[in-house]
Specification:
Helices cover about 35% and strands about 20% of the residues. The N and C termini lie far apart (about 80 Å). The chain has 24 helices and 28 strands. The protein has a six-stranded mixed β-sheet with strand order 13-18-17-16-14-15, sandwiched between helices. A five-stranded parallel β-sheet has the order 6-5-4-1-12. Strands 20-28-27-22-23 form a five-stranded mixed β-sheet. By secondary structure, it is an alpha/beta fold. Helix 17 crosses helix 23. It is globular, with a radius of gyration of 29 Å. The structure holds 1-deoxynojirimycin.
Length: about 750
C-alpha cells in the first residue's frame, strides 16, 4: 500500500514537472524572436543607404502648391531623395504620397508629414498666449491632446509646436504663439504641450511628434521686428530664453526647430554653441533639429556663408539635421564630403537622428493612416466643449468697477458694437491649422445665443479694425443709446498677429479707440471686450470704461466663451502672462527686470524712468480680477534658514471672501537681493490656480529648492549663493505678501 502511494506521489510530481516543461517549451516556441531595438534597426538601415538616400532623409519640402501635391516631389520620394514634407495633410492625400515611398522607393523609408498644428488642427483652441493666461497648464495639455488626435488621424505625424519663445516685446507678432514673458510659466506650458502632443509614446494613433521652436531667442528680435537680430548675454539665454526649451527636452520632445535670427552675431541655424554644446552635449538631446523655412539658405543673407554650399556646411556641421525648403544639403552634400568640409560621421549622425524619430513614431510598422477614421476624429463634440472651456479659463477680467459685470441674461436690450464683434476670422486667429472660419462662433453670435428670448440684441460695426473711416460711428452711437448696456468688441484682426505681423505700436489700431470714446460718451454702461493676440496699450479705456474683459482670440468657441463670462456662467480667473504697458514707448517693460543703480523714485529726477509716462505698467504681469474677491494671508515658511541644497516649504492661506465660486491664481516670486551678479527684482517660482466656493479657505503650498534659488554666475556655473532671500506671494506680481529666509553657506 505504502509503496503504491509513494509511487503515485512520484508519478504526480513527474506529471507536474512534465506539464511545466511543456508549458515553458510552448511559450518559448510561440514567442517571436526578440524585436530589434530602434537603434539596431536604425543602424541596419543606415548601412544599406547610399549617400544620396542619406541626404534625402535630411530634406523637407513644402509639399503643397495650390492645393496639389507637387508631382516633382513624388519623383524625389521615388528616388529616396525626400524624407519629409510640410503642409501635406489629410489621410487620403498622405497615404497617396506614402504609397510611393513604401512601394516604389528602394529602401521603403516612410515619409514624415509635418504641419503647423499650433492651437488646434480642426477644432481650433484659443491662441497659445491665451491658454497661458489660464495659468493652468492642463488646459494646454488637453488642447494639444485634441490637436494631436485630430492631426494624426488626418495623416499628420509631426507638429511644428509648441512655440516656446519667451517674448518681452509685444510689438513682436509672434508673442501670440507662445506663453508670454516669463520663463517659469513658459516652461510649465512647454512641458504640458509636449505631453499633450506626444503623450508617453508618440507612435500611438492619437499622438504626434512635437517640435519645440524656435531654437533660440527668436522672441528677442530687436525692436520686436520679426526675423530681426538678437543680442543677448549667455546668462540671459540660460535664465530667460532656454528654460522652456529645457523643459520641453526633459519632457521628451522629439525635435526642435532652429530659428531665423542671429544670436550675438551667429545665426541660430549655424550656431554650434546652442545646437551642439547646449542641446546635445549638456542636455543630451537625441532627437533632431529641423531648420526653419529656408533658414539654411538665409545664412547667405546673414553674411556668414558666401553661397549655398557654405551655408549647408555651416548648418549641418553646427547641428541642424533637416533642411526645410531650401535644398543646399542635397545639392552640395556630396561635394562637401569629397572636399572634407563635411564628414561622413556628421552625415551619418544626422541621418541616424532622423531615422530614430521615424522609428519611434512607428512609421515603419504603420506608415498609413486609416482613411475611414479621419472624419470621425474631427470636431468631436467633447473636443468642441473642451475648446469652449479652454477659452473661458483663458479670459482675464482687467477691470470691473461697480460690478458692471456679469450682466443679467434677462437684460432688456444690449448693443453689441465694434469691428471684432462679428469677426469670426479673428477668433480663428493665425496658424489656424485646418480650422474653418464658418465653424467659429463670433462674440455677437455667442451673446445672441446666451441672452433670454426677450432680450433685444442690437448690432453695429462702428468702424473697421484698421481703416480710417468713422462713417459707422453715428449708427453705433444710436444703437448704444437704445440699449441698456453697450458691449464694444475691439482689438486686432487675425492678420495682425503671428508671423511677419509685428507692429510699431501696440495701440488699438484704426479708429477703434474713438469708437469706444463715442460709445462711452452716450453715458450707457459700457463694457469693452478685447479680441487680440498681444498686450495692447489702452490707458484711456482703462481710465474711463468701467469694465474690460481680455478675451484674446478664443478659437472655435470664442464667442460662446465670451458670453459665458459676460453673463456670469463662467467666473473669469485668468491672469496676464505678459505685462500690459501704458504706451509703446515703455517697451521693453517686463516684471522680472533688474533693479539698476537708480531704481525709479517719484521725487528724484535722476532715477530710471521716463519724463512723460509713469514707470509702472498699465496692468502688471500676473494680473487679473474675478467676480468674487479673494484674500491671501498668513504667509508661512517651514524654516527661517535652509542649506544651499535644502528645501523650503512656503504656504499661504487663500480665502474666497465674496459671494460667488471662483478661481484665484496664487503666485510665488523670489528675490535674491545681494549676490555676485544683479538678480531680477522678482522671479516667478511657483503658481497654483485654485477654485474656491464662497467663504471657502485653503492653504496653498509651494516648495522651493536649488532649482528655484540659483542662477548662472560669472563663470557660467549654476549656483545658489548663500545669504538672504525674499519670498513674495500674491494674486499678481505687484500685490504680494513678503517674508525672508536665509540660505546657509555649504
Ligand atoms: C516659418 C515659421 O517661422 C515656423 O514657425 C513654421 O513652423 C514654419 N514656417 C513652417 O510653416
Amino acid at each position: 500500500m505504502k509503496a503504491t502511494k509513494k509511487h503515485k506521489r512520484v508519478f504526480t510530481h513527474f506529471l507536474c514537472f512534465l506539464c511545466l516543461f511543456v508549458a515553458v517549451l510552448l511559450a518559448t516556441a510561440s514567442q517571436s524572436p526578440r524585436p530589434a531595438s530602434v537603434e539596431q534597426r536604425v543602424n541596419a538601415l543606415l548601412a544599406r543607404m547610399t549617400l544620396e538616400e542619406k541626404l534625402g532623409q535630411l530634406q523637407q519640402l513644402d509639399g503643397e502648391a495650390n492645393g496639389n501635391f507637387r508631382p516633382e516631389h513624388l519623383e524625389l520620394i521615388r528616388q529616396g531623395r525626400l524624407g519629409s514634407t510640410l503642409n501635406v495633410r489629410g489621410a487620403q492625400r498622405t497615404n497617396q504620397v506614402q504609397r510611393v515611398a513604401m512601394n516604389e522607393s528602394r529602401l521603403k523609408i516612410p515619409v514624415l508629414f509635418g504641419f503647423d498644428v499650433i492651437h488646434g488642427y480642426r477644432t481650433i483652441f484659443p491662441i497659445p498666449l491665451a491658454e497661458a493666461a489660464s495659468w493652468d497648464p492642463s488646459v494646454a495639455e488637453r488642447s494639444a491632446a485634441v490637436a494631436a488626435q485630430e492631426a494624426r488621424n488626418s495623416g499628420v505625424h509631426w507638429t511644428f509646436a509648441p512655440m516656446v519663445d519667451i517674448a518681452r516685446d509685444p510689438r513682436w507678432g509672434r508673442i501670440t504663439e507662445g506663453a508670454g514673458e516669463d520663463p517659469f510659466l513658459g516652461a510649465a506650458f512647454a512641458r504640458a504641450r509636449v505631453r499633450g502632443f506626444q503623450g508617453n509614446d508618440y507612435s500611438a494613433a492619437d499622438k504626434v511628434l512635437a517640435c519645440a521652436k524656435h531654437w533660440v531667442v527668436y522672441g528677442a528680435a530687436e525692436g520686436g521686428r520679426d526675423y530681426n537680430t538678437t543680442e543677448v548675454s549667455e546668462n540671459t539665454l540660460r535664465e530667460i530664453y532656454f528654460p522652456p526649451f529645457k523643459a520641453a527636452v526633459d519632457a521628451g520632445v522629439g525635435t526642435l526647430m532652429s530659428s531665423f535670427n542671429a544670436i550675438n552675431g551667429v545665426p541660430a541655424t549655424a550656431n554650434e554653441f546652442t545646437l551642439t554644446r547646449v542641446l546635445r552635449q549638456e542636455w543630451k538631446f537625441d532627437g533632431f533639429v529641423v531648420s526653419d523655412y529656408t533658414s539654411v539658405r538665409e545664412l547667405i543673407n546673414h553674411g556668414i556663408a558666401a553661397n549655398e554650399e557654405e551655408a549647408a556646411a555651416a548648418a549641418l556641421n553646427a547641428g541642424v539635421e533637416m533642411e526645410m525648403v531650401s535644398r543646399s544639403y542635397n545639392a552640395f552634400g556630396a561635394k562637401l564630403l569629397q572636399e572634407k568640409k563635411l564628414s561622413q560621421a556628421t552625415i551619418d549622425e544626422a541621418v541616424r537622428r532622423v531615422l530614430r524619430i521615424k522609428f519611434r513614431l512607428g512609421l515603419f510598422d504603420r506608415p498609413y493612416t486609416d482613411e475611414a477614421g479621419e472624419a470621425n476624429a474631427l470636431l468631436r463634440p467633447e473636443s468642441v466643449r473642451m475648446a469652449r472651456e479652454a477659452a473661458g479659463r483663458s479670459m482675464v477680467l482687467l477691470k470691473n468697477d461697480r460690478e458692471t459685470l456679469p450682466l443679467s441674461k434677462n437684460i432688456g436690450s444690449i448693443a453689441v458694437i465694434g469691428p471684432l464683434a462679428d469677426d469670426r476670422a479673428a477668433q480663428l486667429s493665425c496658424w489656424a491649422g485646418d480650422g474653418h472660419e464658418q465653424d467659429m462662433v463670433s462674440p455677437l453670435a455667442g451673446i445672441k445665443a446666451k441672452v433670454s428670448a426677450q432680450t433685444m440684441v442690437l448690432y453695429a460695426k462702428g468702424c473697421d479694425a484698421k481703416g480710417d473711416s468713422t462713417a459707422g460711428f453715428q449708427q453705433a452711437v444710436e444703437v448704444a443709446k437704445k440699449a441698456d448696456v453697450a458691449i464694444v468688441v475691439v482689438g486686432e484682426t487675425a492678420d495682425m498677429v503671428g508671423e511677419a505681423a509685428s507692429r510699431s505700436t501696440i495701440d488699438l489700431p484704426g479708429r477703434q479707440l474713438e469708437l469706444v470714446q463715442a460709445i462711452q460718451a452716450t453715458g450707457k454702461p459700457t463694457v469693452v471686450v478685447l479680441v487680440n493676440g498681444r498686450p495692447l496699450a489702452i490707458p484711456w479705456i482703462a481710465g474711463n470704461v468701467p469694465a474690460i474683459l481680455e478675451s484674446w482670440m478664443g478659437g472655435i468657441q470664442g464667442g460662446n466663451a465670451i458670453a459665458d463670462v459676460l453673463f456670469g456662467d463662467v467666473n473669469p480667473g485668468g491672469k496676464l502672462p505678459a505685462t500690459f504697458p501704458r504706451s509703446t514707448g515703455q517697451i521693453p517693460i517686463y516684471y522680472n527686470h533688474f533693479n539698476t543703480g537708480r531704481p525709479p523714485e517719484a521725487e528724484n529726477k535722476y532715477t530710471s524712468k521716463y519724463l512723460d509716462v509713469p514707470w509702472t505698467p498699465l496692468f502688471p504681469f500676473g494680473y487679473g480680477l474675478s467676480y468674487t474677491q479673494f484674500k491671501i494671508s498668513n504667509l508661512q515658511l517651514s524654516a527661517p534658514r535652509i542649506a544651499a541644497n535644502g528645501k523650503l516649504t512656503v504656504n499661504v492661506e487663500v480665502e474666497n471672501a465674496g459671494r460667488r465660486a471662483g478661481d484665484e491664481v496664487v503666485q510665488l516670486y523670489i528675490r535674491d537681493p545681494v549676490a555676485t551678479m544683479s538678480r531680477p527684482v522678482k522671479e516667478l517660482k511657483g503658481f497654483q490656480r485654485v477654485t474656491l466656493q464662497p467663504g471657502e479657505k485653503r492653504r496653498v503650498e509651494f516648495v522651493l529648492d536649488r532649482e528655484h534659488l540659483g542662477f548662472w554666475n560669472r563663470e557660467m556655473r549654476y549656483v545658489v549663493e548663500p545669504g538672504e532671500f525674499r519670498v513674495m506671494v500674491g494674486a499678481n506680481s505687484v500685490d504680494v505678501l513678503e517674508a525672508k529666509f536665509h540660505v546657509d553657506a555649504p
